[in-house]
Every structure is written in structure tokens, then in C-alpha cells.
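REQUEST ID: PR-0412
SUBMITTED BY: lab tech R.K.
PRIORITY: routine
TASK: structure prediction, single protein chain
INPUT:
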Amino acid sequence: MQTTPPRYLPSLDAFGQDGGPLHWGYDPRKHGALCDRCSLQGQRVVPSEIRAGSLLYIVAEAPGRNEELLGFPLCGPSGDEVEQALEAAGISRQYVSLCNAMGCRAPEMSRKLNYDAHLRALRVRNAKRKAQGLPELLPPHIACRPRLLEEIKGARALVLIGKQARLAVVGLDKEEELRLQKLSEAERRDNAGEGRASDVDEFGEDQDLEAPEMREARIPGRGFPGHALLNGRLIPCLTTVHPAFVLRNRRWTMPFRSDIAKAVRMARGQLRWIEPEMIFFPTPEQLRNFLFSLPRDKLIAYDTETDSIVPTEAHLRCIGIGNKERAICVPFRTVEPVPSWGGYSRDQKDQIRRILVDWFGDTSASVVAQNEKYDRTVLTYCGDFPGFVMGRRVFDTAVGHHVAWSELPHDLDFLIAQYLDAPHHKGKRHDRWTSDYELHRYCMLDASRTAEVAGHLLKEEALLAQVAVVKKDLWLSSTFCRGMNEIGFRLDIAERDRLYNVLGERRNQKEAEARALAKEALDRSGRGTPGAYRLAGTLNPNSFKQVGKVLFEALEITPAPEKAGGFTDSGEPSTKEEILYYIMDTGLPDTVERLMLAIIDYRGATKLQGTYCKVQPGHDGRVRSSWNAHVVVSGRLSGSKPNLMNLERSIRSMYTCEPGHVLIACDKAQGEARIVAWEAQDQRWIDAFLAGKDIHKVNACDLLGIPRVEDVSKGQRQFTKTFVYAINYGAGLKKACQMIRSFVDPITRGRPYRERTLGEIALCYRRFWSQHAALTRYYDRGAEIYRTQGFLESSMNGRRRYFLDGGDTRDAAKEEELKNYRIQACLADDVNDATERVVDVFPWGYAGKYTGIVHQCHDALVLETTADRAMIDGPRMVELMFSRIGDVDLPVDLAIGVNYKDKTEYVQQGGVWTAKN
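STATUS: complete
OUTPUT:
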């Protein structure tokens, strides 16, 4: 076996002299590889870099181009990334062994044509071979697995980088396992080149998966130490992402290096984790003694386990409380048919409830939790704690990590993997418990590890530098998001069903239109074959595959280039909406363009119908989105299941209010434009805002040469608004041209600017930047600040973003993010401050049930109140949300109505609010 990597590139004549696979004087068949059955047979093999007595074995997926050329694993940029991670962990490459799960590189494997694409192509290839009576070829990770297991059998510890490495070492799925077992023992012995059987059956079906050693051998997710069972020996093992992924997504540099450092500690037996002491099924006296003896100078966390993901409808199963040394779990409902413990008497239950209410209500203490708004909502609504009030100060680890590192994940699994050496304690079915003991242990580990994570997180410099932001986001999560999760937004079911039918009719119309246009396009192009006509007649516009066949195969349309995102990760031409618009702008026959528009409209109707018109309200007729303050990097809130933030105007009428109530909608008028005007000190815009002029009409006059603001039409204003927002936030001339041409009027569904020429838009482009040189200086200054200090921050509350993927201004997407961040974060901070002022005055239930804030949409708030209070509360909301940035006002528009779509706008004239004409 090769033990040192060749550092030269010999003549290609040196390869394949024995008629076998091309290699560097290395035959993988002698180590068990099934090369003669592999789909990559004939490709150049890259030998492993094995060193006897290595501290660590690193298993990658497959060789890349550099590895194939130089003849050793993990070289080039990926190898540099691994070596830097090893050096940061205090070890050099010469103390580790490196190998690939697959010894050869598929010719088509690249960033766009990945291994999954190779497997899909192999299935097609094998189907043809089967029809010809030929034996099927094996996927490379199966064919190479015996060789890999032979090479790593002496490993002290393993690091598996990438999905295929994990698959090859940990085991195969059932179908692949059975296929491999069909090979005779003799064939495997012959392929191995030695008189022994390989280890490919190690994870066969006859293994006792419930045996303790097999349970221990299950490899957890990324970043968690575990064990792999090889040759009957448990080997410490840890999985992580591939360095090639890190090179494309620089935000993963920190987690990747953390994983490698943990793997080194694992190999040295230096993992720092102690299982907490756990108390199961405590008596009231044990609970009291435990809770009130916990040291106040140490972080204490709590966690709840329930039977539902909807917190207002969940039943409480248990509560876990503890720190990193000790934890206790209080059961409320069993998951066992017959409880394995005796249960509590009524008097004991009452005592436990009083103890917990007193402990949670202690206003002089604090507590830690992960995504705490869920747990607090459960405790409030589960019925087990009447009058429950959280008195303790709460630190939410998800929110805190979002403030510190907004671009990374914030789930508890990620945080544990990042900060702790603890093993994984969650499974794929962790919410489907059959044992109270396992459930309670899991709950206590959640609480204990959350407390320890918080200890590490609170030392992060990135967090300590943003204390004001942390406080605001904790309020948003624990108070505002929780309040909106609880109150919900009333759904008019009849209107929802009507819109569902309208969208269904639109889908049917666009489907028929697309099929007819596809046939017409085939007729006009002269490319109509019987197969093409059949495909056009049954075209499903929602099928990316069928649409691609019609456009790129039957009609022979040129796909968008790869640099424009014109291909999917599997290498197929993309038919996404933005790509279809891109192709349209290259110049197409009218019929083909109308076909693409019909496909886009069909997909839009399908999405609205499936995503929003199937939403089911709760028992009280209200929809509850899951609102979060730890998702969007700029500090805006986000919502999901359903995402009410992105409700298209055409379907907003399904959201309404209770009988006798109204909705008051207040939103910041041109907030981002006003902020950038002041931040950049663009005097032209500042003067327009101070004079109370419509900025979009002012821009239209400047760009289109219109003499008076009064002469600007609605269409000209809309064009200018779209154009200015596009180029002001990073779009170059070509992208701006594409965005303008592809703009779809939300009412008419037409493209009013499709005929705009590049020359016309270029003239507007040059005019804009010549009139707003201050903006150019502002953006350049932002890029310079980032290069100097490594982050950008909002001028209001100091919210930071570190741009972990890099801020290279040569990259259009990253340049756009650099330009946008300070403006968007500043507006988010302003809206969040305004939100807190509004909630202080209008808390939920202030005017009866279902009154208070029911919705937030970026820079707008929607308040539900009684009809008789509308003209009192509406103007008051405007006052509360009003703010200034420097000398520029950030005014607020007011609208009132009975549903979210149909509202009457109000304006203030002479101190009196009147309906707008």
C-alpha cells in the first residue's frame, strides 16, 4: 500500500500498463475493491495516504481534479482547508492518514454535476445493461467499500467528511446491501486478490441492531462524537462537512474547524463532557430542595416536552430543569400504556404545581432556554398552571446566537456541536417516545446542555459587543413573537375556499394555454415530431423536467448560461422563474415567450393555492404563524407555517377580524429610501423628503426628463420605483435591465416594460448615478469599513453582520449584500423599536379578547381592535410608530378595514384624519 504521496506528475504512458484501472502503481483490487464491477472502471485511481500509527484517519468522499492530477488525496484548495483546520487544532498533516471513500473521480463530477447525478445516470445505464443481459455495474461507493474498510481497519479515530464518506463507512441502505450480497464469495475473493473475504457484510441485515454495541455504533449528525463498528471493534468517529463545501460557503469555516479540533480531542481521549446527575420522578420535597438549592451564580435552564408542535394546543408531558452538573425532570403525562412509575397523588400534584409556579415567578432570578417562546406559551396554555407568569429574566440561546452569528444555524443541535464535546442525544424520532425514562432523560439533557451552551455563548465577543441588540431581540422573541403566536389572525374560510376555486380555474386556464402554445410553437418552428406533440399535449407546467424537455429539447431553445444560474446542481438546464425571464430577454418568438409566461403564471397560481389556500385555522377560527426573531440576518422578524410575511395582495382578503372588530394597518412610508438618503447625505433626496414630495415621482422627473411632478403618470412612477430600488441595492445595468423587462404588474399580470431597450435603461442608469454621487461614496465607504473592521453595523442599535461568506465586491451577490445590510438593518431596528412602543400602549387583550397586534410585515404593523376605537387607536399608532433619522422624518401611513386587503387609507389634514379620495 502507498504510504507517501507522490509529489510529481508522471507521463500518462505509465498508467494502465496491465490493462486494469489507471493508477499510480497501486492496484485497489488487492485491497478488496470490486473494480471490475464498478461504474468508474478505467478511471485513474488516487491512492490513499496511510501512515502507520496515525492519530486520526480522515475519510473524504472522492478525488477531485487536483487529487487526480497529483495522485494523493485532499490536495489543492480542499487539502489546504483541511491542513489549516488541523494546524488550528495543534496537529499537522504528517500525523494523520487520508483516504477517499471512492478511489476514482467520475469524469462528470463537478460542482454542478455531483455524485447524485452520477448515480442517476448509472440507474439508466444499468437498465440498458439489464435489457442486454449484462450484469449491473456497482455504484463507486459500494465497489470501493471493501478497500476502504481494509485501509481504515487500524484507525484509532475517524473523521468522515461529506455524505458519501459517511455512507461508505457507516453502512449501506437495504437495496444496495442486498445487491452487493448477490456477489458470490468466490467473486469477492478473486476481486480482492487475496484468499480472504472482505468486510462488506459487516452491516448486513442479520446484525442485531438492538444489541448495545450496535446502538452505540450509530453515527450521529455533523459535529457529534460517536462510534463506527469495524471488524467487531468500536472506533471513535465524527462526521463533518466537506472542505469543498466550506470553500463555497465560507460561513462554515468556523464549524468545520471546530469539528476537526473536536476530532483531535476525541482521538487523544480528551473530550470534555461529564454526564449530569439526573433525578427522575421526584417527590415534592425533592423538587423543592433541588430547585431552591441551585446556585444562583450558575446558569440554570429549563425545557418542556409536549405532544404537539402547536404550543397553544399542546399537552405538557414533562419539564426538565438543571445546570450542567445536575438536572431534574417533573412528569405530568405518561407516554407508556401502563406507567412504569407510581404517579402522584392529587395533593402531590398540587404541591408540585405551587413549587414550580413560585420558582418560575421569582423576579430576582434568571433562567436559560432554547427557543423559549415555545416553552413559555406551553406553560401558559397547557392548563396545568392556572395564572402562570414568568417572572424570571430569560436568556434565549437561539436568539443570543443569532445576534452573535446571524448567518449560522441556531438550532440546539448546531449549538451543542459548536460549543460542547457532548454526544448526540437526539434521534430522528425523538418526539415519538414509548418510555417515560428515555423521554425524561432526553428532557434533562436538553436543559443541561442548553445551560452549558449559554455559558459559552455569553463569553462570545460578538455577543458582548451587541448588548442592546440582545435585549431588544429577547423582548421580540419572548414577548412580541409569543404574543402574535398566541393571538393568531382570523381566517375567513368562505373567502379562502372562493380564492382556492379562483386559483384552480386560473391553473386550469394556464395549463390549457401552455399546452396549446407549446403545440403552436412546435408548428411554427417546424420541429414538431409525434413524440414532441404528445409531450406538449400532456405538459405539466409544474414539472421542471417536462418543461425542460419541451423548451430545450423539442424547441431547441438555448438555456441560460451557467454563470447566470442556468443549470441545476444535477446539471440540467434550469426552468426557474427568474431563468425563464432571463431567456425571454435574449429574444424569443412571441409564441415561445407567451408559453413561458403561461408556465410562470401556472406555477404562481399553484403555489398560492397549495401554500395559502389550504391553511386550516385553529379551533377558534384563527391561523397562528410561527413568528421568530432569530432567522433574518438584518433583524427583521420571520414567519412560517404559513409565512404570512409574503402574502400576495390578491389573496389577503381571506384574513379578516372578529365580528365588530376592524384592522388598523400602519406602515413606514418609503422607509428604506429615507434612511439611505440621510445615511448617504444625498442632498437631492433629503430636500425632496423635507419638502414632502413623492420621491418616486421626483426620481421619474429626473430620470425620464419630465418637467413637473404633477405630469408623472402612475406607470412612469412604478417604472422609476422598480428601477431605482433595483440599481440602488446592487443591480448592475444588465441585471437592472432584466428586472425592468421582467417586471409583472400584480393586477394585470402583464409586463409593461418588456419593450424597454437596453439603451433607454442605460440612459436612466447613467443619469441616476450622475445625480447621486453621494450614494456611490456611501456604498464605497461601507465596503471600506467592512475591509477595515470585518463587519458592518446599523447606525441605530448597532446590529452587526460579519459577512462570514466574505465581502468580496467583485462578487455581485456579496456586493449587493454589503450595500443592503446597513439600510435594511437600520429600518429593522427602527420598526422593532416602534413595535415595542405600540405593544406597551396596546398589549394583547387591551380592548377585549382578540385585540392587539395580529401581524407584522417588514415595516408594517396590523392591530385588531373594536370598531368604535378605530379612529382613536389608529392615529395613536401613527404617533407611536413615527420616528426620525437625523433631519429626515420616517412618517407612517394609516389604513383601516375589515380585512387585510380591502382597507380605506386615511390622511391627516389640519390635525383631522379623513378618508383619502
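NOTES: The CA atoms of residues 172 and 529 lie 43 Å apart.
REVIEWED BY: pending
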